[in-house]
Design brief:
By secondary structure, the chain is of the alpha+beta class. The chain has five helices and nine strands, in the order βββββαααββββαα.
């Protein structure tokens, strides 16, 4: 049974039996993992962290031989990111980023770039607030790209032809269609060159970039439609559910 130490962002937190909790964490060294913290609900002082969602912690955990659920023996709070709760919209944006990461990142595959992306985004939201719409669309596209889940922006999803001029956005097909393949999704909307340029720039940029405010609603709508078709389950933060969730 191996013992490991990692920094971890808590993505989800829900009760287990009467005394314990199970958490889904994104770690800096081991990727996403699920862990059991025994007795946390009845003896919170035993640990230095309650392992609340949207906090950064240093954890010590053990491998188990019978399941993918690890035993977390120690958890120390590193950064509570308390300023995320300054207002509802900031909290909703942070919760969306956390929930999306939980949905697309596979278990137990090291993802240091994704961990850093989520950490930077949450810290930027906590310290600066900033333009929430721009932070959200940047995080979404970068996460999808790093996870190998991004929409196809250069080639037709139907025939793989390189699209140079005229393309149509089809969320259900995962990106662009060329005119010859438009019959596969007649409802696909024409993809304006400015919109495509912005989507590609966001996907390539390691840090948030300035965007034309008029483009933000269209970019977010395209990405939300893409997530609707590509994710296995709808995100609560996209359907009007609570900002912080336990199941």
């Amino acid at each position: 049974m191996g013992i490991h130490t990692a920094d971890a962002i808590v993505l989800r937190h829900y009760p287990y039996r009467e005394t314990s909790v199970i958490v889904s964490c994104l770690t800096d060294r081991y990727g996403k993992l699920k862990g059991l913290v025994k007795g946390l609900r009845v003896h919170p002082n035993r640990h230095r962290s309650a392992m609340e969602p949207l906090t950064i912690n240093r954890i010590v955990f053990y491998d188990t031989l019978t399941s993918s659920l690890h035993l977390i023996s120690q958890c120390d709070l590193r950064n509570p990111l308390a300023q995320l709760q300054r207002n509802l919209e900031t909290m909703r944006c942070a919760s969306f980023c956390s929930e999306l990461a939980d949905a697309v990142v596979p278990l137990e595959e090291p993802q240091p770039a994704i961990y850093q992306l989520l950490k930077d985004t949450l810290e930027r939201l906590a310290l600066e607030g900033g333009e929430l719409g721009a932070l959200r669309v940047h995080f979404t596209l970068r996460l999808l790209r790093l996870a190998g889940f991004q929409p196809q922006l250069d080639q037709c999803t139907g025939c793989n032809e390189v699209i140079r001029r005229e393309g149509y956005w089809s969320a259900r097909h995962g990106g662009l269609l060329c005119p010859r393949c438009l019959h596969e999704d007649p409802s696909a909307a024409a993809a304006e060159p400015e919109l495509l340029h912005a989507l590609k720039a966001l996907s390539d940029a390691e840090q948030p970039i300035a965007l034309e405010p008029m483009l933000l609603p269209a970019i977010r709508q395209r990405l939300d439609d893409f997530l609707h078709w590509r994710l296995d389950r709808p995100l609560k933060t996209m359907t009007g559910g609570p900002c912080r969730y336990n199941s």
